[in-house]
Amino acid sequence: MKLDRLVGERFKEKPSDCVVESHALMVRGGYIKYVANGIYSSYTPLKRITRKIEQILREEMDKIDGQEVQFPVVMPASLWEESGRYQSIGKEMARFSDRNESPLVLGMTHEEAAVQLVREYGQSYNKYPFMIYQIQTKFRDEARPKSGLIRVREFTMKDAYSFHTSQEDLEQYYDKCHKAYERIFARAGIPEVISVASDSGMMGGKISHEFMLLTGIGEDSIAICSDCDYKANLEAAENIVINQKSENAEPLTKVHTPDKHTIEEVCEFLNADAKNSCKAVVYQRNADDKYIVLFLRGDLEVNETKLTNHLGFEIHPAVISEDSGLNAGFIGPVGLDGDFIVLYDRSLKNLNNLVCGANEIDYHYTGLDLDRDLENVEYYDFAKIQEGGICPKCGKHSITVSRGIEVGNIFQLGTKYTKAMNMTYIDSEGKSQYPIMGCYGIGVGRLAAAICEVSHDDYGPIWPKAIAPYQVHLCAVRPDDQEVKSFADKLYQDLLDKGVEVIYDDRNVSAGIMFSDADLLGVPLRVIVSPRNIKQGVVEIKTRDKSYSANPSMDVAFEEILKLL
Amino acid sequence: MKLDRLVGERFKEKPSDCVVESHALMVRGGYIKYVANGIYSSYTPLKRITRKIEQILREEMDKIDGQEVQFPVVMPASLWEESGRYQSIGKEMARFSDRNESPLVLGMTHEEAAVQLVREYGQSYNKYPFMIYQIQTKFRDEARPKSGLIRVREFTMKDAYSFHTSQEDLEQYYDKCHKAYERIFARAGIPEVISVASDSGMMGGKISHEFMLLTGIGEDSIAICSDCDYKANLEAAENIVINQKSENAEPLTKVHTPDKHTIEEVCEFLNADAKNSCKAVVYQRNADDKYIVLFLRGDLEVNETKLTNHLGFEIHPAVISEDSGLNAGFIGPVGLDGDFIVLYDRSLKNLNNLVCGANEIDYHYTGLDLDRDLENVEYYDFAKIQEGGICPKCGKHSITVSRGIEVGNIFQLGTKYTKAMNMTYIDSEGKSQYPIMGCYGIGVGRLAAAICEVSHDDYGPIWPKAIAPYQVHLCAVRPDDQEVKSFADKLYQDLLDKGVEVIYDDRNVSAGIMFSDADLLGVPLRVIVSPRNIKQGVVEIKTRDKSYSANPSMDVAFEEILKLL
Q1: CB distance A70–B35 less than 8 Å?
Q2: Across the interface, do B67 and A7 touch by the CB < 8 Å criterion?
Q3: Whether residue B257 is found in the same domain as residue B225
């Protein structure tokens, strides 16, 4: 393809609305065009990249006996009512009615469609296991699309669904798919992707993993043990606390703390360590605004995912009203009276001599001992693990927290969907059973953007060979020079004839413009034909990542390029 | 792939809700699964077929310098407001609002998105011409989805958009694309597809063609000249009528025609030929129910497409109310009084001695001569061309009418979209101009179904080699026979190693079940290994279309199969 025919514009200035580099480079390089919030069109270079990623996905899914199918983008609401998710999923799901007022939804995931497709097929145990997958457009009405293709509303996804007759069989297949995912990320040029235990969220099921590409711009926080192989999304990471009661137990004493509202202010005022305080964090149930008061150690933060999972309903940070019975800033466990859900984090277990609110304006207690001062306290895990925290696997203080982009996920779904949608099979003993499911997703556009995010320099993306839009970027500097033009033309044709994907720049522009456009296209191998090179009888070859450059003589240039590919 | 692992069911009984054969065979063969009205999931065999079709489309689009891009499925309403189609398109377009109440639509075609993508790129004449295309899911809320994949609501389409600086350049490219379409249909195994002139409908523009696969179940009627190369969709076909006045002009005479309402009843009662009558057909404007009274010769039918195009607004067949001033069954041009739009078809030109309604219950006129009895009558072309009608090109009475499935269409759009959306370029003389567009569509699923419709027998589809889900269907009849099993297993592996797409049936079922499943999968080459064949030292090879069969000896069977592929 000749660069001067390539539809799309390339430019130098970083667009002001781009926060992350992959977003800026994809706009500057003519990869994407904004259509609406979280909705983009793709130009040819990106389309070539995503098609290569899709082909890798297809090959690796086929290798683990996946069968490619296709589910609809538009589905009847009734299908989602069967699973219960028509009700349980909120505004992320786009809903509309057709001309006959039948309610429809846009697919954001396809568990329901997968069960519907195979419900009749899978009626006997001897059909199992099997896996079906698709590569298709999805729409999720994200509240805050951002970072270009990292978080969008419309996206292409590879989603796979496996069906099994035993948990052991699911687990075996789950491992197989885990390995396939490792191969996929390695083939796509990011072998450094790690898998971490994750929260299953709206998907259901117990065990799930996310594949994370570590980068500072990632939206997820990941707890990684520097000593063993423990890795988990912060949302799912267990927080272990080992406390010891002080031997000098103080009595519970009310103290005057005028205008000290936050736990930091109170601790400073009372000269106490935040670790020796019991702070209250208040939420409200979305459905009816009922208050939930959570107590945890003053130096920790709430992990809202764990809290929501425990409660089993959606919550939001509280807006505390005057008639609530809560004295904001002075809430404590002793003497708290009202129709609240009260919860205790296990970071408070086995502590005494704590500072806490006295449920009275301008007063706190010191000397709190929950065991002594309250009855029947139950402790659960609601706090975020912290840098330097205790690894839940090896028990050492070896947790580090990193940021990452989720580029894939796998879930052991269990029988959530097959039960809800009444999909059964007859087992070898003639008994009716529910199949056990797994599901496995990779977002294509996000993967491309994530790769760009970890593989670029100031001038453009550095695409790994396997997914680069072209393999060779041929520049004819000064194509008005007859020798340059005819040599470059021939090289272009020879490479095309060999089936090499070449982008050929023979525009009458400066070398500077040529090279900055080439940087933005990020093609692995750059070949430069110029009057100076011709004079020396050579061609200049460079890799985009600058790891290699050579000046082979003109007569071997073609073979040299083929060798490098 | 082993057949016993292939997800999907195959069965003999024709489903009662399937009217056309391709629909029945695709359900019976485990190709599609109904999800909702006009919405299907695809099993692997169909997915393999459509992927091959898509690859053919891609290659042929690339050959005519197309650049693959991708537009969104979900688009903001504002984009369609720019072109005016947010208003002009009716219920076929799915509309919904996102969580912020922003109106969105589902793409049913992508002219607006194409212009949006290249509006900034195409600002100078030297960027032209260029063509961009995509292969993607579309949703059109059809009033009456039917015939399986022939008329659905959700479908995958290849849609291409070209941009030009002159009508000549568009026409040249349009011809190039016409030839690419011919190659596509030939490669997909249906070289018999014909192109016919068509009505441009909601797309706009003047010249357009549809590619039609002739078959009795087709929804379109096509006028074909048996004498010259004239071919047109009936909707777009000009109807030529040559009339001569009778020399014995009769006077206009009111006659009593009690209870004779239809033109057939009246003509029979008055012993007149329908050709000598002037019938009235009444419509109403959708917007305000205003009546439109159309007069045409009694033996002809109204072409509503031509009528709507003339009127420039949407209409529906009239419901004639009592206070309308119209006497249903007795409407005629003489003395017709009221606030109606009155139109005359050119089939009435130069006729006299006509029977027509007298606008009075139970009365008609005879002897009508529009020239004599009315003033200022203007005639337009509103009638359907008929079998035996006059060819608008060669002028002979040589029109035949056939039915066909539209498998592709191409449009010369002109500047409709670029003007409406203010896309301009600076021409070589520094003047601002609107680019001229063409657009080119092929529906992937419909093409697969249409091919099945014209290429099947009573037992299943006969897939052309280029799009068949597999190339070889290997049957091991009596796999419990050690010799059969080990020979067939080895053949399967050898073929796989050669990269041949094989579906291997080694189930312990009767030959009858094996062969009927093979018929339903429609794979071009069937290879049968059985105890009887083994005893004779041969393998049986048959083509699905029954044009070829052979029994090569076992030791050359592998080479023989490769030769046949």
Answers
A1: no
A2: yes
A3: no
